[in-house]
Amino acid sequence: MPKIIQAAKNRELFLKAENFLLPHEKICSQLMQMAMQKSKELYIIFETEILGVFNFSEGGILTSFIPRLTKETEKELCNFFSKKKISCIMGEKNEAEKIKKLIFKLKKIQPNDTREMLFMEYIKTKNISAQNLEIAECSLQDAEKLFPLHISYTQEEVLPEWKKINLALERLKLEKILRTQKVLAVKQKNSFCAKAQTNAISKNFIQIGGVFTKKEFRSKGLASCLVKKLAEEFQTENKKSVLFVNKKNKPAICAYKKAGFSAFAKYEMLYYK
Known about the structure:
This protein is of the alpha+beta class. The protein has helices spanning 12-21, 29-36, 71-81, 93-107, 143-158, 167-180, 222-235, 250-259, and strands at residues 3-6, 42-46, 50-56, 61-65, 88-92, 113-122, 135-137, 183-188, 191-201, 205-213, 240-246, 261-271. Strand 10, helix 7 and strand 11 form a beta-alpha-beta unit. Helix 5 (143-158) packs across helix 6 (167-180).
């Protein structure tokens, strides 16, 4: 029978998780980063070998890679989640749909908000006019200037409509991003008008996210320049770049295509009240 084991209880499991995820890293870079960082929120489904890996945060956000969901594995997952509150399921569409069905079977609930996304990969270099942009690599010292952009992005692109923003929590999230990820922003006088960052840095991939431009500066190619610069900088480290974007956000899709990104899969974010 498969068992669910918190990886932190047997640190050898982190390396096993990395090896398990490696062939699928392009769609699992966040999980790979969590294994590399030895996250206490990472869990392994193990029998005689690893059957799956998932991360379940304190806030109820679930990211998983479970290639083959057997009845025995389903039973273990149902036991694990029976008394846990799910706030969001996110990941490659097939993975997200598997977990959605399992949660419905267990709790008889459906997501209240479904976001269908495109998974895109940087595949070719395209010349983009930088328009004499002043692009800064941000540090903790820039948190105050970046915070308005971070809040606007979170409200417009991340939070479901029923959820109120927690400013103190978001400030902590931003500071963690600035400590652990790479953040680029376009300077405009004494503030920033656009930003982009890495959400995950794994063995062979980065996942770009948090892309946001102030309304009055949109349609000027700022997002294209930022994501392209991130992708090219990590190319020097032999890392490929991926990102996901809402299928309804046509301007963003055009911006990423302009920067050299191409869709290769579908991604989903499923929110529960």
